[in-house]
């Protein structure tokens, strides 16, 4: 089987526009209040780096690495591979994710982080695939809504590859 990534879904210019729009929304919403930005590894490393450089409030950048799995008798469990380095109690926290698909990972992560009593907790995603959602999770900030396709680039991977593309491409298996 051959992997074809020729079809560009989101150009680099569109990503730049998306970053401008999201950062100005964030800058006006947080009004200079300090923010803990929690990038979700590995996919969100590029988006997090691009976004924080456009933010005007004081930020602490932290990362988590998590995954969700659905057991036979459960709605899903969160596996934390890397936890935060900072205490988020009484802080404004923004989760920065690459893409929301079923919504399972972020629903579980949100629940987990709320237990730590942040002052506020919001979600910012670069891409959203709402057609795939299995719950009612809605991001507070959404970059670009995409159709039900598997995409790579701008941090997103297929088995660890293609994260370095500066645009977003559709994966076609031939
Ligand atoms: P979910 O929302 O819990 O289903 O999972 C979201 C995670 O699945 C994302 O953080 C990505 O790591 C991965 N994922 C979902 N859709 C895609 C895609 O189209 N390309 C690459 N990774 C994806
Ligand atoms: Mg991910």
Write the layout of secondary structure elements.
Blueprint: E1 3-4, E2 8-10, H1 12-30, E3 35-41, H2 45-52, E4 59-69, E5 77-82, E6 92-100, H3 104-114, E7 120-128, E8 141-145, E9 151-152, E10 168-170, E11 172-173
Parallel strand pairs: 3-4, 3-6, 6-7, 7-8
Antiparallel strand pairs: 1-11, 2-10, 4-5, 9-10
The chain binds inosinic acid (IMP) and magnesium ion (MG).
Inosinic acid (IMP) binds at residues 43, 68, 97-105, 150-152, 156.
Could you describe the 3D structure shown?
This protein has 174 residues and is of the alpha/beta class. The protein has one domain (3-173): Rossmann fold (3-Layer(aba) Sandwich), CATH 3.40.50. The chain is built from 3 helices and 11 strands; from the N terminus they run ββαβαβββαβββββ. It has helices at 12-30, 45-52, 104-114; strands at residues 3-4, 8-10, 35-41, 59-69, 77-82, 92-100, 120-128, 141-145, 151-152, 168-170, 172-173. Strands 5-4-3-6-7-8 form a 6-stranded mixed sheet. A 3-stranded antiparallel sheet has the order 2-10-9, covered by helices on one side. It has a two-stranded antiparallel sheet with strand order 1-11. The radius of gyration is 16 Å and the shape is globular. It starts with a strand and ends with a strand. The model has no long low-confidence stretch (mean pLDDT 96). It binds inosinic acid and magnesium ion. The site of inosinic acid has 15 residues, from strand 6, helix 3 and strand 9.
